[in-house]
Design brief:
The chain has 182 residues and is of the alpha+beta class. It is built from 4 helices and 11 strands. The protein has helices at residues 2-23, 79-82, 159-162, 165-181; strands at residues 24-32, 35-40, 44-49, 63-69, 72-78, 95-103, 106-114, 116-124, 128-129, 143-149, 152-157. The strands form 2 sheets. A 6-stranded mixed beta sheet has the order 8-1-2-11-10-9. Residues 24-168 form the CheW-like domain.
Length: 182
């Protein structure tokens, strides 16, 4: 009988371990305005040094411009301004993180400016708390959750909300209309 229990117990442990691996996600962590943020690594295409950003007239303040990435025009978003903060001050560790988002069934590359990229972390699903309903300095729909890492919290961003091309295109149109009416 103990043999049946131990076999069943071992199978249960194996299933639990498999579930934990399935619940484990990798996140790229970065700093922005002194706070720690994270994005699911599956959205990250590459990280490049800041530079070569061409400003585009009549764009909202969160659109810093565009870059030429191997022949493709990639819009660059200042994540700090997108969150309603001051523009990112360009420094030695400032990077552009190239992120892939889906728009009308197609993948689109968008660059986001961050103060510094830190590391890739494995954060188990059970270590991500729901987003707070209040008290955050950014819109709650931008936050997927609060990841607990080494006794501190990392704000896990919902890439599809933060970089919603539908919402940003409406903001661009509104901004252009406002400039043309002035």
């Amino acid at each position: 009988m103990s043999r049946v229990i131990s076999k069943s117990s071992r199978e249960m442990q194996e299933r639990n371990a498999a579930q934990e691996l399935q619940d484990l996600h990798q996140y790229l962590t970065f700093t922005l305005g002194g706070e720690a943020f994270a994005m699911d690594i599956l959205h990250i295409k590459e990280i490049i040094e800041y530079g070569g950003v061409t400003e585009v007239p009549l764009m909202p303040s969160f659109v810093r411009g565009v870059i030429n990435l191997r022949g493709a025009v990639v819009p660059v978003i200042d994540l700090s301004v997108r969150f309603g903060r001051q523009p990112t001050q360009i420094a030695k560790r400032t990077c552009i993180v190239i992120i892939e988002v889906s728009f009308n069934g197609e993948m689109q590359d968008i660059g986001v400016i961050v103060d510094a990229v830190n590391e890739v972390l494995d954060i188990p699903g059970q270590d991500i708390e729901p987003a707070p309903a209040f008290g955050s300095k950014i819109r709650s729909e931008f936050i997927l959750g609060m990841g607990k890492v080494n006794q501190r919290f990392v704000i896990v961003l919902d890439v599809n909300q933060v970089l919603s091309l539908e919402e940003m295109s409406v903001l661009v149109e509104t901004d252009v209309s406002r400039h043309l009416d002035a």
